[in-house]
Structure formats: structure tokens, C-alpha cells
Design brief:
By secondary structure, this protein is mainly α. Helix content is 58%, strand content 2%. It has eight helices and two strands. The protein has helices at 39-54, 66-81, 91-121, 127-152, 157-161, 173-176, 189-202, 213-241; strands at 170-171, 209-210. It is globular.
Length: 244
């Protein structure tokens, strides 16, 4: 496969979004590229596992180390398959990547439910513990949804590098103003992490718009989980800290 090929499907209008100074210019996100580096996503996955392990035992799925262990095994397998850049488009790697994010999602949701249950049944939780536990679950949730966005947009990082799909699931700002960014700009994991963080804090799209239905539903799900965490957990902590 020629990773430097700038060819596009015939259905794409090459004149659309072309910088005035370079007629016929094709943005990097619409052409084949060498593939995204693995390390940003790898750091995020390890951070999510560390946050899960930082929670006390009563807020973790049982057995305690089962789900984090599965995540680490899948992570090692994925690193072996694509150690530096996302270039190999093997189905087994794709299934393993989706499985890793799914397992992390189950672990995070489980911990969130256990925390809400503890919040309802125990009125003697220390505010500091409540804020630390809620913050860890909230941040893990941000990372997990960033991984979902990153893994699903236009078929995942390998599919995006190969330019297999023209129509994006998320419309990032640089896509609308290609003349304002570097000619080789394309969305990477950090962009999806920013999308997830802003969606979790604003409870709505900010500068990145969801285009497909699955993208809208996934963002809605993240906002719902974030709202639950902030309203129930942080409000309880502030109430305990307040007068009376």
C-alpha cells in the first residue's frame, strides 16, 4: 500500500475546502498517511487502569484485579501488533481494541454504580474521600469515552490512516478551515480526549460536532454519566462541607 498516495474516491469534490493558495490540495485527514503514533493512546489506557486500581475495594468490581488484568493483557497484545504506529489492519487487533474499551467501560460504570449506592446508604463518608473517588471515576470516564470516539470515528485509527472512509463521524474545527492549520493535520487521540473532556464538562458539544447518530448517542451517554457524577457526588460533598 502506498501510504503517500493522495488519491481519493471519485465521489469526493476536490474543490471543496481547498486552500486558495494551493488549488487541488487534499487535507491529510482525507488522504493516506503513515498512521498515528501509539504512545498517546497507550498513556491514556495505562492512566485509566491506574485510576481503576486506585479506587478502594468496595468501589471496584469483584474479583478486584480481574477487569484491570484483562485490560492490561489486551493492551500488551495490541502493542505487540502495532508497537509504534497504527499500520496493521488485522481484524483480530480491531476486535481486541474494541474489547479493551468495552471492558474498561464496564469497570468504570460498575464503579460509578457502586459509588452511587454507597452515597445513598452511607451518610458518614468523608467529603475528601467522596471527592477523590468521584474525581477518579469521572476522569476514567473521560478517558474511556475518548477511546470510544477515537476507536469508532471513520472506522478507527488504522482505517483513518488508510483513508478508507471519506465521511467523518466528528467534524473538528480544522476540517472546516484547512488553510488555518498545518497541511499534515489530522485528528489524533489528543483531539478525541479534548472532545471527551469538553463534552463531560459542558454536557454538550463545544467546537467539535457529532455528525453520525452513533456519535450523538455516545456523546449523550457520556454527558449523562458525567452529570450523574457531578450532581450526586459533588453536590453531596459540598452539602457535607457546608454549614449545619
Amino acid at each position: 500500500m502506498d501510504m503517500g498516495n493522495d488519491s481519493l474516491p471519485p465521489s469526493l469534490d476536490l474543490g471543496r475546502g481547498t486552500p486558495p493558495s494551493e488549488p487541488g490540495f487534499i487535507p491529510a485527514w482525507l488522504r493516506q498517511t503513515p498512521g498515528e503514533h501509539r504512545w498517546p493512546a497507550a498513556i491514556a489506557i495505562l492512566a485509566a487502569v491506574a485510576l481503576q486500581l486506585s479506587l478502594p475495594g468496595h468501589l471496584a468490581p469483584r474479583p478486584r484485579f480481574l477487569l484491570p488484568g484483562i485490560e492490561l493483557l489486551l493492551f500488551v497484545f495490541l502493542v505487540i501488533g502495532n508497537p509504534v504506529r497504527f499500520s496493521r489492519d488485522w481484524k483480530v487487533l480491531r476486535y481486541a481494541a474494541i474489547s479493551l474499551v468495552a471492558v474498561a467501560s464496564v469497570a468504570t460504570a460498575w464503579s460509578a454504580v457502586l459509588l452511587v449506592q454507597r452515597l445513598v446508604t452511607d451518610d458518614k463518608i468523608r467529603p475528601l474521600d467522596l471527592l477523590l473517588w468521584g474525581g477518579a471515576i469521572w476522569l476514567t470516564n473521560v478517558i474511556v469515552f475518548a477511546l470510544w470516539f477515537w476507536e469508532m470515528d471513520r472506522g478507527g485509527p488504522v482505517s483513518r490512516a488508510c483513508a478508507d472512509k471519506v465521511h467523518p463521524d466528528f467534524l473538528f474545527t480544522p476540517m472546516t478551515v484547512p488553510e488555518m492549520v498545518h497541511r499534515d493535520w489530522e485528528p489524533g487521540f489528543v483531539d478525541y480526549l479534548y472532545l471527551s473532556f469538553t463534552n463531560a464538562t459542558a454536557f454538550s458539544p463545544t467546537d467539535t460536532l457529532p455528525l453520525s447518530r452513533w456519535a450523538k448517542l455516545t456523546m449523550m451517554a457520556e454527558s449523562a454519566v458525567s452529570l450523574l457524577t457531578v450532581v450526586l457526588i459533588v453536590a453531596r460533598a459540598v452539602n457535607v462541607l457546608g454549614p449545619g
